Amino acid sequence: MLFPDYKETKRVYHIASITDLEGILNKGIAFDDKATYETKYYAFHNLINQHRNETIPAWVDRSKAIFASMNYRSRPKFHSHTVVLSVAIKPERCWVANENKANQLYEPFIMSRAEPFKAAQHYLKDRGSKLLEKYWRTSLSFEENLLQRRDLKRGYDAEVLIFHPIPPEDIEILYIVSDHRRLKPHEWKEIFCRQPYNMV
To answer: Measured between alpha carbons, how far is residue 64 from residues 7, 10, 97, 100, 162 in Å?
Structure first.
C-alpha cells in the first residue's frame, strides 16, 4: 500500500483539484463546496440513495458526503493538477462502501441524457439497480470496517463517506500531482518557488 495503515496514522486520503486548494487551506472541506457539485454529482448521488435498504442509517446520505480513500495501491495513477490530502476524521460519522459498484454506473448515467445513448437507461434500471443494491448491502460503518477490514479484501475498492466538515487544521498536503509526477510539497517548491528564479 502507498501509506501506512489507518490504525497507525488515523488518517484517510482525499483527492482535490489544485483549483480548490486555496479554499481548502483557508476554510477546510465541506461536501458541497466544489463548483461542480450541483452540475456533476448531485443527481448521481440521489440515484444511488434511492437504493438504500432499511439497515442503512438515515444520516448516511451520499449527497451529503465528502469522499476519501482508506489507502491506495503502491503505484496509484492520480490525475494531473490534483493534490493528495491526508485528513483526520470522526470515525463514528463515517461509512465505508465498495465504490466499484457505484462508479461503473456514472458513465451510463451521464451518457443516457444524450439522445443517441438514451437506451442506457435500461441498463441503469436493470443491471444498475442490482449493482446499487449490492453497493449498499456490502457497505458498513467505518468502525465496523476496522473490525472486518473489508477494505483489504480483493475486489473491494473501499470509499470512505465522511459526514462532517473537515477543518483546515485536520488537513495535510502529502503530494501535488504535476503532469503525472507525484511531488511532495517541498519538492514542488524546489522546482517552482526558488528565489530568485533565473529567467532563460
So the answer is: 26, 22, 15, 19, 8
Report the length, in residues, of the chain.
200
> For residue 10, what is its C-alpha cell?
488515523
Structure-block grid coordinates of residue 193: 518557488
List phi, psi (to 5°) of 156: -105, 105
Give the pLDDT confidence of 120-129 residue by residue, as tens digits.
Answer: 999 999 999 9
The total domain count for the chain is 1
Show the domain range for 147: 6-99+135-192
127 assigned to some structural domain: no
Domain-located, residue 118: no
pTM over 0.85? The answer is yes
Cα distances (Å, whole numbers) of residue 104 to 28, 127, 151, 179: 29, 11, 18, 26
